[in-house]
Design brief:
CATH topology: Ribosomal Protein L22, Chain A
Low-confidence stretches: none
Order of helices and strands: EHEEEEEHHHEE
Structural class: alpha+beta
Strand order of the largest sheet: 1-5-4
Number of helices: 4
CATH architecture: Alpha-Beta Complex
Number of strands: 8
Mean pLDDT: 90
Strand content: 25-35%
Radius of gyration: 15 Å
Helix content: 25-40%
């Protein structure tokens, strides 16, 4: 099995609704209903498919899931939201900050960088705690990072696949 992922757009009001939609989408991706558990680091896994690498992300307007048998995988999805300059300075490299400032849509440009970074951190199983390192996802040597077309201008996503 090669890496596979899916995105579903919607309008979920609660975190529980977002999770339910993500788990349903994950079930469609693997071909059946799923029980999702989380390890000590918070990473999801499927007890019935212990060798399958799984990543899940959700936001108010979309859910995304990714699976891979061969290597670790991470996915992140975000919908448009306000972004503080402090957050940009804290998690972006100087080159990324310049690109954000030059972009016509600062918020969405930041979220493009953010989703790539978070996908890499999920793939590495460090999660958002790793943002202190200000990783540059475009030069991460341990994985391939790809932005995903979500079919909506207010939603961005990225997937990171570990190199084997």
């Amino acid at each position: 099995m090669t890496a596979r992922w899916r995105v579903e757009l919607g309008e979920w009001k609660t975190l529980a609704e977002q999770r339910e939609a993500a788990y349903r989408l994950l079930g469609q991706l693997v071909g059946g209903s799923v029980v999702v558990e989380h390890d000590a680091s918070g990473a999801p896994f499927l007890p019935a498919l212990p060798d399958l690498h799984v990543s899940i992300s959700h936001c108010r307007k979309a859910v995304a899931v990714a699976v891979n048998e061969d290597a670790a995988i991470g996915i992140d999805i975000e919908s448009r939201r306000r972004v503080s300059s402090g957050l940009v300075e804290r998690v972006c490299t100087s080159m990324e900050q310049e690109a954000i400032e030059a972009a016509a849509d600062h918020e969405m440009e930041f979220l493009r960088f953010w989703t790539c970074k978070e996908a890499v951190l999920k793939m590495r199983r460090t999660g958002i705690r790793g943002f202190g390192s200000m990783i540059d996802a475009s030069s991460a040597a341990d994985c391939i990072v790809e932005q995903i077309d979500c079919g909506c201008s207010d939603v961005v996503a990225a997937v990171a696949l570990a190199k084997v």
